[in-house]
Amino acid sequence: MKAKILGVLTLTLLTAAAQPALAAMYSYSYTFTTGQVVNGKVDATFNAGADAGSAADDYLSNVSVLSALYQGTPFASSSLFLRTYPGYATDAKMYFSGTLNNFIISACDPAPAANCPQTLPVPWQFFVVRPINLSEPGSSGPAYYDSASGLSALEDRNPFGTWTLTADSSPVPLPAAAWLLLSGLGGLGLFGRRRKVS
After folding, report:
1. Does one domain contain both 62 and 120?
2. Paired strand residues for 47
3. What is the DSSP string of 97-162?
4. Distance separating alpha carbons of residues 183 and 190, to the nearest angstrom
5. Contact partners, residue 12, CB within 8 Å, separation at least 6
6. DSSP H or E segment with residue 181
7. Domains in the chain: how many in total?
């Protein structure tokens, strides 16, 4: 009886390991109406429209910023932070449609306590993305700023530029799925060993 239960448990673990959550690498890009381009890559988890109830609002969560470039030149810092904007919370998301984007990519943690311009040993650069359909006059839209060079780009109102977010690679299992797979294989081996002993 115990052997049967163990066998069922093993099959359950193997099935769960075969259907993991998915993560992949994505490229993002924003082209300002004035021609400047900010682009880069992120590692993130794909979510199919669950946040806004529409496929047009598919989004990425658990986003890690791998790179950010302005006009082809990488940001001066290798440590890049993604936060909500405003608010600077850590659960920022990237939307494929761009209509719900509210985030900042910064060369230092942009939370007020971090005091970026004073504490960062390299020029402070940041890239803010607001909803591409934001239409309130005077509202701040997408923006880029570099404290060292003074280079900046800002769009205050419609028309905004072009936002793109595309997958670079096929989704791969998250680490948790690997542990499930190893657990299943271990259970299968134990099950086989017990059968030989009996």
Report:
1. yes
2. 59
3. SSTT--EEEESS--SGGG-HHHH-SS--EEEEE--TT---TT---SEEEETTT--EEE--SSSP-E
4. 11
5. none
6. helix 175-197
7. 2
- Would you state the structure tokens that stand for residue 190, as one six-digit string? 């134990």
Place of tokens 């904007």: 85
Can you read off the two tokens belonging to residue 100? Answer: 């719900």
pTM value is 0.69
Mark 15-39 as b/e (b = at least 16 C-beta within 10 Å).
eebeebeebbbbebebbbeeeebbb
> Alpha-carbon distance 46 to 117, whole Å?
33
Residues 137 and 158 in one domain: yes
Measure the CA–CA gap between 55 and 38, rounded to whole angstroms.
Answer: 25
Same domain, 98 and 152: yes
The tens place of each residue's pLDDT in the chain, 198 residues long, gives 545 444 434 444 444 443 345 668 999 999 998 899 999 999 999 988 766 556 668 899 999 999 999 999 998 877 899 998 878 888 999 999 887 888 999 888 877 655 565 554 556 788 988 776 555 554 567 888 887 777 888 876 556 788 999 998 655 554 544 444 445 555 545 545 555 555
